[in-house]
Amino acid sequence: MNGGAGINEDWWICRTCAVEHATRPEVCAICADERQWVPASGQAWATLAELQAEGRRADVAELEPDLFSITSAPPVGIGQSAKLVRTPAGMLLWDPLGFVDDDVVQRVRGLGEVVAIVASHPHMFGVQVEWSRRLGGVPVLVAEADAGWVARPDPAVETWSGDLEVLPGVTLTQPGGHFPGSAVVHWAAGAEGRGVLLGGDTIMANPDRTSVSFMRSYPNRIPLSAAVVRRVTDTVVRFDFDRLYNNFEGVVPSGARDAVRRSADRHVAWVRGDFDHLT
Ligand SMILES: [Zn+2]
Ligand SMILES: [Zn+2]
User: Fold this and answer.
1) What DSSP designation does 118 have?
2) Could you report the per-residue pLDDT of 10-54, keeping only the tens digit for each?
């Protein structure tokens, strides 16, 4: 441990993925996996106090009525944008940031009561247990299929599978793909009642804002099969949604359900060889 700031902390954050760990293994298992990477400079750990001492702050911004993003500057780990979905029955904290401080906890509490913390997949676990503790022991729901990736066990962690209506009108489901338990959220009241899907990187909104991608790994560009892309798509087109947000700043602002269908057809056609004459 370098510096005295972390002297009272007995847990660590991987600087590359920002996932919390109860111990400091030689290398973070999430980053050593083929879907992520360990930097050339080697594995690096930080304590939360160190991340705070570096001048980091979290910002909460409204994306649309009752949907908020939480980001940090400078970023931590993969640099995700956490999401907060607000309903009359409470809030869902989705893809929790790998950073938290008293200021952001106060801002979140000012918006409502968080009743569940859920990550779309292990890359987005962030400091989910720390968020839970600071919000009063909120349940942390982890996909059963990916529970083995939890590196900071806690009594607040519970597993789930299938479809789960975590709040009225807010339904979690697991299309899989990127990870076996990769999840998305359907929020029926989003986009002025036309429906929102929080796709994480299970279904990644592309920079063109009109299409999405399905990958086993984004940083290392590992593809998924046609069959898996069909399964992912079939799982989510059961829901009505018009807008899709990814786990960064990306969004398909309208027509997202059609965009998912169209993008899946394109993916399947490419891997089948329909467009090989273009290569
Ligand atoms: Zn890591
Ligand atoms: Zn990921």
Assistant:
1) E
2) 999 999 999 999 999 999 999 999 999 999 999 999 999 999 999
Residue 225 has phi, psi (to 5 degrees) of: -75, 165
CA of 170 to the centre of ligand 2 (A): 22
Domains in the chain: ranges and CATH: 12-50 (no CATH), 51-272 (3.60.15.10)
Band the pLDDT of 175: cuts 50, 70, 90. very high
Q: How far does residue 121's CA lie from ligand 2's centre (Å)?
A: 7
Residue pair 252/259 in contact (Cβ under 8 Å)? The answer is yes
Shortest-distance ligand to the CA of residue 30: 1
Closest ligand relative to 28 C-alpha: 1
Residue 228 to residue 217: CA distance in whole angstroms: 14
What is the reported pTM? 0.95
Using DSSP, state whether 41 is helix, strand or coil: coil
DSSP-assigned letter for residue 254: S
Q: How far is the CA of 241 from the centre of ligand 1 (A)?
A: 33
Residue-wise pLDDT for 93-132, tens only, equals 999 999 999 999 999 999 999 999 999 999 999 999 999 9
> What is the average pLDDT score of the chain?
95
| Residue of 185, 186, 154 whose CA lies nearest to 21 | 154
How large is the angle between the packed helices 256-272 and 226-236, nearest 10 degrees? Answer: 170
